[in-house]
């Protein structure tokens, strides 16, 4: 065989790896451009968010709201640190992984989720940081997000129940009792699939269009009950951090609702936001603001402080960490084993 044939035989396996690297670089640049573009559009180009951002800075620099704003800002790394801890507890069930890598995966997922519909990029960001069992990791990510949803639903339904009973259904005792029972049953129905995930898998088998998702969630029953307790507790603790930040920002901007009704309004706002699908993180802003202004309006709170607090909460917890996650996206290793195999000597 002529020598140049042997040379072609050695170089051909390198070509797909080179093309993949170019695609990865292009994808990273695209994510970076989209993230920066959405950040500019949401934080600076949008008039309402820009006004809230300026008010946030003014409150921080002045004496009136400096303490609450700085405390809310200090809770941002605590918030995402709890999420990283939660993902570490889930991911180590699949493979040995460090907390540092899980924290990086959470930030990468946050950045990718910022520019994808319904934040599906969050799945990709966390999965790509794992070295193996990436298919099972889909179920692990879903389990973590479902635990967070449980905390949101349980607190949010109680919050909305308060508003229904207080402002809309006065003088209807039978209806009130029915709503309380319905709330209890709804929360029980939400918690049940968490601890009886085999029932969820069986339901996916029965519904034909959903059968394809069964293999992605098959890892859920392998998590023991004590692990689920920890994940759910971390989710509830993280939910409490969100509520505390919202309350601190309301305080910084001059809103002062009663503690109980104020917490009900915050919980109802988070629930209504979670129930509405979004094209990207920017689309969440309008849903949250509409819900917050309506619920706090029932408590006779002025619109501007509520709007500013809600927008600032989004800036602190989504916009700033998404920008920080870009540093890790640019260093992300999308292909691991395939690239090493392509560079290995051929027999």
TrEMBL record:
Question: Which key words tag this protein in UniProt?
Answer: Cell membrane, Membrane, Transmembrane, Transmembrane helix
- Look up the record and report any one GO term of the cellular component aspect: plasma membrane
TM spans, by residue? Answer: 22-44, 56-78, 137-165, 177-195, 216-233, 303-330
Q: What is the lineage of its organism?
A: Bacteria, Pseudomonadati, Bacteroidota, Cytophagia, Cytophagales
Membrane-related topology note: Multi-pass membrane protein
Q: How is this protein named in the record?
A: Flippase-like domain-containing protein
Q: Which residues form a coiled coil?
A: none
- Provide the primary localization: membrane
Q: Is Plastid one of the keywords UniProt gives this record?
A: no
Q: Where in the cell is it found?
A: Cell membrane
InterPro entries from the entry?
Answer: L-PG_synthase/AglD (IPR022791)
